Amino acid sequence: EYSYEWWFWMVATGVTLGLTLSVKLVGLFTVLTIGMAVIVDLWNLLDIKRGLSIEQFRQHFYARAVGLIIVPIVVYLFWFYIHFAVLITSGPGDSFMSPAFQETLQGNVMALESLEIRFNDTITLKHKGTSVFLHSHPQRYPLRYTDGRISSQGQQVTGYKFEDANNYWRVIPAKIFMDPSRPDDDFVKHGDYILLEHIGTQSHLLTHDVASPLMPTNQEFTTMPADDDSRYNETVFQVLIDDGESDTVWKTKSSYIRLVHFDTKVALWTHDKMLPEWGFKQQEINGNKNNMERSNIWFADQIVGKN
Hints:
Layout: H1 4-23, H2 28-45, H3 54-86, H4 99-102, H5 109-113, E1 122-127, E2 133-140, E3 155-160, E4 168-173, E5 193-198, E6 203-211, E7 219-225, E8 237-241, E9 257-261, E10 267-274, E11 283-288, E12 298-305
Antiparallel strand pairs: 1-4, 1-12, 2-3, 3-11, 4-5, 5-6, 5-8, 6-7, 7-11, 8-9, 10-11
């Protein structure tokens, strides 16, 4: 014990464990196998017939902790250090990384085209999972759906795959939730409350406790005239930036967000099912009651107008 050869094999085992984990995390099964053997070994060292004191046992434990826990962790993290030290430019795998990481890469399109959004900017919103724009048009939901349910007959809000003027939304601060000291053209930040005004129809995005056309469990999205404040709270949404903090600014391209409704706490959501002919075969938009789902992610594609 504690000879050069003893230490060599202890540390060598730790190094190879770190290398195994660095190749693939399924190597954790190898770590588990060796860990079980070490536990049995330590249990046997506690045998009173060995004659070891508690201090001697503690030294054995520390030696194994260094060789089989600390050394593998150092080896595993070392390769990440090398990886990030050389990974400084954009490449084909960018989309697998978070927006915050992509912004650190030289030549990354997301970083080059990312712009900070201010209140009263006009933007387009795109769903990350299905790549449709948040869209609305003057046509309304039918009075009755095919399953017999009654709709609100409100203005349709849909997902549209193509660039169109009906994809334009103005980001308006929700005054009753905003610090009065902030200027009207301040940057929109994580946690801010906003209204989205549809430019084409001069109306505010709204969701309420009415079932959506295709999913009775989810809420319908529609709009209200911009000059009608009678249902103000139903038009307020909170901007929650993925991994954002209170001072994180909402940016085009690089900020992944969830828009959570203030009144009902549902998240703006869409799925790949299309509305019938009355909805022009466009994608349904509705409110997801599980507002933490990853499929609730949207991003601002571009700023198309300044106030």
